[in-house]
Write a sequence for this structure.
C-alpha cells in the first residue's frame, strides 16, 4: 500500500471558495479529504488569523508614517474671565500727578481667543527612509503569515498521514481478529474432541484478547489524532469527522532537489537584513538638516461687558515662515547607534550563512532518510507477504493434522510482527516524504502555486 503523500497538497489548496469542498460542512458529520482539511485549517485556524492581523497593523503604520508628510493643522480656543485684574504701579507723571504713584489695572475682564497653526514638512530624509522601512516591513509580515500558513499545512498533512496509516493498521488488526476468532472456534471443537490440549486453546484465546486490546488502543489513537486535526481546523471537538479518500487527486512527486530561494526561513532572514540596513540609513539621515514651513493665525476679543452688543474689541494676528533644523553635535550618540546597527547587519548575515548551511544539511539528511525508508518499506512489504504465505501454509498444515498448533501460533505471531514492522516503515516513509518536501522548499512552492 502506498499512501497519498503525493496527494494533493494541491496547487489550489488555499482557494477558500472551492464550491464542492464543504458540501457537507453544515451537516452533523464533517467528511474530510486532505485538501478539505487543509482549506478548512487555513480558513479557520486562530493562530494564523492572529498572525494575519500583524499585516493589517503594519498597513496602518505605513499610513501613519505617510501622514507625517501631510500638512498638520491645529486649532484651539480660549476664554478668560479676569474677575480680579492685576494692577501695575505707574509714575504719577504719566497722569499729570508728579511725585505720586498710581495703581492702574490693564486689560479687560473678558478675553476670547482662537488660533490656528499649519505646519508642513518640506524636507526630511528620515521620513522617506522610515516609509521605505515600513513598506519593507509589510513584506516581512506577509511572509511571516505565509510561514505560519506553511507550518499549519505541514501539521495538517502530518496528522492526516498518521490518520490514514492508523486506519490501515486498524484494518490489519481487524483482519487478524477475524482469523483468530475462526481459529479459536476450530481449536475449541478439537479440544472437546480430545485432539488438542486445553493449553493450546487458552493460548489462542490469550492472543485473541491481545488483538482486541491492540485494536482498542489503535481506535483510541485514531480518536486522539482526529481531535488534534480538529484543533488545527478550529472545529468543535465533539463534532463527528470522517476521513475520506480524495476523488481524482493529482499526485505530486517529491522533488529531489533543493530550492533555496523558496525556503521561507531564509527569505525571512533576508527581510530582517533589509530592515536593519534601512534602520542604519534612517539613523544616518539624522545628520542631514530638515526643513518645514509654518503659518499661524489668531483672533482675540476683549470686553468688560460680555453680553453687550458692540462692546467687544476684536484683534487678529498672523505670521508664517520656514524652520530649518540643523543637527550639530549630539555627543556621538548617533555615531554609536550607526555602529550598533551595522554590527547587527553583520550578525544577521552570519546567521543567514549558518541557516543556509543548516537548510542544505537538513535537505541532504531528509533525502537520505527517505531513500533508506523506501528500501525498508520495500523490504517490509516483501516480508509481510512472505509472513502471510507462511501463515497460510502453517494453517493448512495444522488443519490437515500435519503440524502442531505451536507452529501455527508461531506463524501467526510472525505475521503480526511483520505487519507491525510494515506499518512502522510505511509511516516513516510517508513522514520522510513530507519532511523532504518541506526542507527542499517544495512545500513552499506548492502553496505558492509555482
Amino acid at each position: 500500500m502506498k499512501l497519498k503523500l503525493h496527494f494533493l497538497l494541491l496547487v489550489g489548496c488555499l482557494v477558500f471558495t472551492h464550491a464542492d469542498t464543504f458540501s457537507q460542512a453544515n451537516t452533523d458529520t464533517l467528511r474530510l479529504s486532505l485538501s478539505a482539511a487543509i482549506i478548512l485549517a487555513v480558513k479557520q485556524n486562530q493562530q494564523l488569523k492572529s498572525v494575519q492581523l500583524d499585516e493589517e497593523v503594519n498597513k496602518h503604520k505605513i499610513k501613519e508614517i505617510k501622514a507625517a508628510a501631510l500638512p498638520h493643522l491645529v486649532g484651539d480656543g480660549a476664554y478668560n474671565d479676569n474677575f480680579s485684574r492685576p494692577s501695575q504701579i505707574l509714575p504719577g507723571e504719566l497722569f499729570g500727578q508728579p511725585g505720586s504713584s498710581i495703581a492702574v489695572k490693564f486689560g479687560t475682564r473678558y478675553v476670547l481667543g482662537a488660533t490656528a497653526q499649519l505646519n508642513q514638512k518640506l524636507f526630511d530624509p528620515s521620513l522617506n527612509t522610515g516609509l521605505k522601512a515600513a513598506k519593507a516591513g509589510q513584506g516581512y509580515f506577509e511572509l511571516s503569515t505565509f510561514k505560519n500558513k506553511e507550518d499549519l499545512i505541514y501539521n495538517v498533512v502530518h496528522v492526516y498521514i498518521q490518520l490514514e496509516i492508523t486506519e490501515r493498521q486498524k484494518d490489519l488488526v481487524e483482519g487478524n481478529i477475524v482469523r483468530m476468532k475462526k481459529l479459536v472456534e476450530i481449536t475449541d471443537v478439537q479440544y472437546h474432541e480430545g485432539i488438542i490440549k486445553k493449553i493450546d486453546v487458552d493460548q489462542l484465546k490469550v492472543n485473541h484478547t491481545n488483538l482486541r486490546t491492540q485494536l482498542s488502543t489503535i481506535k483510541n489513537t485514531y480518536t486522539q489524532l482526529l481531535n488534534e486535526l480538529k484543533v488545527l481546523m478550529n472545529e468543535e471537538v465533539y463534532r463527528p469527522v470522517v476521513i475520506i479518500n480524495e476523488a481524482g487527486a493529482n499526485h505530486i512527486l517529491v522533488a529531489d532537489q533543493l530550492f533555496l530561494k523558496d525556503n521561507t526561513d531564509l527569505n525571512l532572514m533576508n527581510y530582517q537584513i533589509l530592515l536593519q540596513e534601512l534602520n542604519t540609513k534612517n539613523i544616518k539621515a539624522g545628520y542631514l538638516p530638515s526643513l518645514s514651513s509654518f503659518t499661524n493665525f489668531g483672533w482675540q476679543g476683549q470686553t468688560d461687558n460680555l453680553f453687550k452688543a458692540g462692546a467687544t474689541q476684536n484683534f487678529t494676528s498672523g505670521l508664517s515662515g520656514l524652520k530649518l533644523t540643523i543637527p550639530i553635535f549630539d555627543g556621538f550618540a548617533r555615531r554609536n547607534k550607526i555602529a550598533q546597527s551595522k554590527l547587527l547587519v553583520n550578525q544577521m548575515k552570519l546567521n543567514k550563512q549558518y541557516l543556509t548551511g543548516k537548510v542544505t544539511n537538513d535537505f541532504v539528511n531528509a533525502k537520505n532518510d527517505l531513500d533508506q525508508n523506501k528500501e525498508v518499506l520495500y523490504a517490509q512489504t516483501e516480508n509481510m507477504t512472505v509472513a502471510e504465505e507462511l501463515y497460510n501454509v502453517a494453517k493448512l498444515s495444522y488443519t490437515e493434522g500435519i503440524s502442531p498448533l505451536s507452529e501455527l501460533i508461531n506463524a501467526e505471531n510472525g505475521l503480526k510482527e511483520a505487519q507491525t514492522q510494515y506499518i512502522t516503515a510505511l509511516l516513516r516513509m510517508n513522514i520522510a516524504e513530507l519532511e523532504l518536501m518541506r526542507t527542499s522548499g517544495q512545500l513552499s512552492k506548492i502553496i505558492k502555486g509555482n
